[in-house]
Specification:
498 residues, globular, alpha/beta, 10-stranded mixed sheet, Rossmann fold, 6-stranded antiparallel sheet, Beta-Lactamase, 29% helix, single chain
Length: 498
């Protein structure tokens, strides 16, 4: 068949208006003719129909079912999406996709998908057509049905209990969504896309996995046979723009007086432990406090799944590694802490202490790496000390209790307690100083606290921030570092009523 030269027009567009996408489209099969109204340019050369999802071209002579009240033809919306997605994958050379920037790629592919929409079902109304195009793009280059949830800034947690039950936490309240995956293989495909981006895998031999999204959000995956009701995914959202100090102050997470003390402690290189339960905002608080670290200092972060977003230039991020399919090659947090000590760090930040690395962290705090920070799971500052002792024992060294507590008391200066209260508000409920040892007991004194007074009509806890009137013993350290605090900062009073 002789090729008809295209008429003059806009560069990069064929006579029918479809983009040509050089290098992204596979060559057409020789001898195939254009079918019906399908585009015949390089971007959309016809290939054999996808065997699993046959389509009916508008001009094929086959009857098209009557359009329903919603403007759709006989083909269901999900089926139409699968057909268009399959045809798009068939036509594109996906090996060349990584060569283009994401925004350029999406813009070009959008034109192709819109053309395919017109070919498959020209009777879609404008809203359905836009939705179909967006969902096909999300299936091809994003995380499928999750994209609409990930774009919602009010969602803090996403919990997927199998393909058809998805819950979110929005403004502290749990609610079920209408978002669904097609089936279990569809959900597994999205899970594989998430974990493979950071070089990890999840299958029957390794059914649990920690991963992260490109924006830093933390992902945990557990699949059958361990998860009995289907693949289960938990996503803790961390936006691309992390919350700053002013944001937390506006949320009444703590008061200005507490912020002044925390900023002074970090600049004076005191060692800080952030304690709290699951989902209480420990990592968000650690991110915020890290903004007080001077930009010229060399900081090394160690995490299971990298989620800290430090704003300094001189930051080295380390991440643990699970064992490979042969059970070898595992690198845990303790190995990374030991290696970090040889990298000339000025501060070490461990995303979360949960095992034997606690001993190495305490030793680092005692041996010239002042200003280090970590988080751990505990309900109160006193429980946090008990957890530290337990994790030191997990290191495998037999150490007398008194010697262990002396190590803790000399290493840690401040414990900041964060809690998630009833109804969803997250607060810094205590800032406690570790004073030292008296016999075999670690002595602590509370500087600031939040006292809950009750529950309002919406089921949210309310209370007041208080200053206890205790002047910390580390104030001379702050003054030696050139930091002067307001004279009435530690005066006993109510700071803020919530």
């Amino acid at each position: 068949m002789s090729r008809v030269p295209p008429p003059r027009g806009l560069p990069g567009l064929n006579p029918a208006g479809a983009p040509s996408l050089p290098g992204l489209v596979r060559p057409s099969v020789p001898g195939m003719a254009a079918q019906g109204n399908a585009p015949s340019l390089p971007a959309l050369q016809q290939r054999p129909a996808f065997s699993g999802a046959p389509s009916v071209p508008p001009n094929s002579g086959m009857p098209v079912s009557q359009v329903g009240s919603d403007g759709r033809s006989g083909k269901s919306f999900d089926e139409l999406k699968r057909v268009i997605h399959s045809k798009l994958v068939e036509k594109l050379d996906l090996s060349r996709v990584s060569e283009l920037k994401d925004e350029v790629l999406r813009r070009e592919i959008r034109l192709v998908v819109e053309r395919l929409c017109d070919t498959e079902n020209p009777l879609l109304n404008r809203m359905e057509r836009e939705r179909l195009v967006d969902e096909v793009l999300d299936e091809t280059f994003g995380f499928g049905p999750l994209e609409i949830l990930l774009k919602d800034p009010t969602i803090s947690d996403i919990m997927i209990n199998g393909p058809h039950r998805i819950y979110v936490e929005r403004r502290g309240k749990m609610e079920k969504t209408d978002v669904r995956f097609r089936d279990t293989p569809h959900l597994m495909q999205i899970i594989d896309r998430i974990v493979s981006k950071i070089g990890r895998r999840v299958d029957e031999t390794s059914p649990m996995c920690d991963a992260r999204l490109p924006d830093g959000s933390r992902v945990n995956v557990i699949i059958p046979p361990l998860a009995l009701d289907g693949p289960t995914v938990s996503i803790r959202r961390f936006g691309s723009n992390p919350l700053k100090l002013d944001d937390l102050l506006n949320f009444n997470a703590f008061t200005k007086e507490m912020a002044i003390l925390m900023e002074a402690a970090i600049k004076a290189r005191l060692n800080i432990v952030i304690s709290g339960g699951t989902g209480c905002g420990k990592t968000t608080l650690l991110n915020t406090l890290s903004s007080f670290i001077p930009g010229h200092e060399r900081v090394i972060t160690i995490e299971d799944a990298a989620e800290l977003q430090l704003q300094q230039d001189h930051v080295i991020r380390l991440e643990t590694r699970p064992p490979n399919i042969e059970g070898k090659g595992m690198i845990n947090a303790r190995d990374l802490v030991r290696n970090a000590l040889r990298m000339r760090p000025e501060r070490i930040i461990i995303g979360e202490c949960r095992g034997g690395e606690a001993l190495d962290m305490l030793q680092a705090m005692n041996t010239g790496h002042n200003g280090s920070m970590t988080t751990l799971h505990a309900n109160t500052p006193r429980d946090g000390l008990a957890r530290l002792e337990t994790m030191v024992m997990m290191s495998g060294f037999e150490m007398p209790i008194k010697a262990m507590r002396q190590q803790v008391a000399s290493s840690v200066d401040i414990i900041i307690q964060a809690n998630r209260l009833q109804g969803g508000p997250r607060k810094v409920t205590s800032i406690t100083e570790i004073v030292g040892m008296e016999q075999d007991i670690i002595v602590m004194q509370e500087v600031f606290r939040f006292r809950q007074l009750g529950i309002d009509q919406n089921g949210r806890a309310f209370g007041q921030f208080e200053c206890t009137g205790v002047r910390p013993t580390f104030v001379p350290k702050l003054e030696a570092a050139g930091i002067k605090l307001p004279s009435n900062l530690f005066q006993e009073r109510v700071l803020l009523r919530d």
